[in-house]
Write a structure and sequence with these properties.
The chain is mainly alpha-helical. Helices cover about 70% and strands about 5% of the residues. The protein has 6 helices and 2 strands; from the N terminus they run H-H-H-H-E-H-H-E. It has helices spanning about 1-25, 30-65, 70-95, 100, 120-135, 150-155, and strands at about 105-110, 160. A two-stranded antiparallel ribbon has the order 1-2. The chain is elongated and about 55 Å long.
Amino acid sequence: MSNINNINNINNIMNKKFSALNAITAPTRKRIFACMLYEFLVIFAVILIGWLLPEILITAELFQFFQITLSAKWQWLHLFLLLMFYNLFFWLKSGQTLAMKTWKLKLVDSATNGRLRPLQAVLRYFAIWLSTALFCIGFIFPAFDKYRRSLHDIIAGTNIISVE
């Protein structure tokens, strides 16, 4: 019974710390969704330059000389790794992607309000794919969550804060 009480006490302390921290720094829902829209446009540009252009050039060269094409598996792997590099680079470097810098938002560890750990960033990246696979429902969570976290933020233990 004392173990359950200890766990409840720890949960209460963490919830108080988390709510006090994020009551001040949580961005508005409108700002989060505006940032998501802008992030979509940035990622679209990254895909065009970093994935589509090389795929066209590589496929044209391979087909011209060897009469072969890249399989869909290689194309998906290329896209997956490109987006992983883009996100992990910015999340681990400054906690902000290009869109987040524009909207003055920052990605932090929920428990410490500090920088993300590398495994935490990887977990968040995989959780974003899960949010997308669930018909993008995970991206709607900030509209209903008290701390304005999306599904991938909840899974990875991260939070988006204002940096004004």
